[in-house]
Amino acid sequence: MSFDLIKWAMNPFMLMFIAVLSGMLLGKLLKIGTSGALFTGLGIGWGVMKAANKVVEGGQGNIGAAERILKVSVVDKGFFSLFLILFVAAVGLLAADKIAVIIKKYGAKFILLGFLITFLGAGTTYLLTILSDSSNPYEVSGVYTGALTSSPGLAAALETARDHASQWAGEYDTLTEHDKNRILSIVSPGNHLSATEVKRLVPGQVDSLLVNAEAGVGVGHAIGYPFGVLIVILAMRLIPKLFKLDMEREYETFRREMAAAEEASGVTHIEPVSFDLIAFALACAGGYTFGMLKVNLGPLGYFSLGSTGGVLIISLILGYIGKIGFLNFRMDKKILGTIREVGLAFFLGIVGLRYGFAVIDSLTGSGLYLAFVSTAVGVVSMVIGFIVGKYVFKINWIMLSGAICGGMTSTPGLGVAIDAVGSDDPAAGYGATYPFALFGMVLFTIILHKLPM
């Protein structure tokens, strides 16, 4: 009888199960709910990556298993997407019956919040970029998309980073010595090239600049993403306490506003079924397809909702319609709630596993400034977004918590908001804000690369 400890310890299924198991236990202990899976995932992910590197470098043990861990960043991204889709579809169907009423009542405010939060994030990012001469501007701009946990924003950042780097290379001869040195630090990191030595960029250096600009965005996003998730999770727990919100009063305000709005709109009741797997699968497949559609916005490039946005919007629409032929999209809330919790727990655990090494390594290395930028972007965007939403727009916390997460394009934050308020109602605020925040995210990402750095 034999047992391969390394193969067992580096099996992605075991790692996911252990991250969720330990995370849920931690969540019960610290009263942070499903969020515990993120924190245990971060620790496990860091430890597994360190162990895998040692196995490969030492050339002993199950090198194949270690190499697979390093290649996919612990857990394949496909698992990340699967559990995210399950979570989002369940959330959309749960919140769908009130979406029309909520959009009618708060719609314009949610649109403004979506653009405000993404603008604040971009402004904070730009300010911290120009304040740090030593930082790679492409890494810092990548942090913006990571801090707001936006994959479509990352795609826009990668495309515009290459265009910006090409323009910078073409203008090299006319730039200041300061800007030339910044370019050379990106062209050849660690070699300390000087503008007094390099009067003109040769083709090989231009190619290196383009490649390193894109790579810098990727590095910034990888470091910014987990910190963005952490900040949103903490904010959903701490904002009510810091601003001394009376939760009973917030609930009462929400119920009163919804009752009045529903009575005015004449919402029809549809009897739910226990669960309709065909309808649920259709919501997932239809939403995923819708998220892949790209709209040409001319000089702004192409815009798409991505899998998260597509599944959420289609689930809300189908859930609001309620029934199409033999398909029933109004399902038992307990069953959908279970799917939502399973999806969120595994999604958060996988986020931790995939980004654990980047998070902990950044806190002990050169990524410390990028971690600071991500934290600052998240805090500024959410705190000001909350103040405007609560005290200017007069939105109750139940709706506002979801809208802030939508403005941050943060699906993990939505899960925590739902957990914290004890209902799925924040999902409607999230769904109404998310598309506009996503558009703002892409727009401001492009603008960031057109500003002088």
From TrEMBL:
Q: Where is the protein found, in the record's own terms?
A: Cell membrane
- What membrane topology does the annotation report for this chain? Multi-pass membrane protein
Does the keyword Thylakoid feature in the UniProt annotation? no
Ordered alphabetically, the record's keywords are: Cell membrane, Membrane, Transmembrane, Transmembrane helix, Transport
Give one Pfam hit by family name: Asp-Al_Ex
Signal sequence span per UniProt?
A: none
Q: Which InterPro entries match?
A: AAE_transporter, YidE_YbjL
Presence of keyword Transmembrane: yes
Where, by residue number, does the polypeptide cross the bilayer? 12-30, 78-96, 108-131, 219-239, 273-293, 299-321, 342-360, 366-388, 395-418, 430-448
Tell me a GO cellular component: plasma membrane
Stretches assigned to the YidE/YbjL duplication domain: 16-240, 280-449
Which NCBIfam families does the UniProt entry name for this protein? YidE_YbjL_dupl (TIGR01625)
According to its UniProt record, which protein family does this protein belong to?
Belongs to the AAE transporter (TC 2.A.81) family.
Name of the protein described by the UniProt record = Membrane protein
Species the sequence originates in: Propionigenium maris DSM 9537
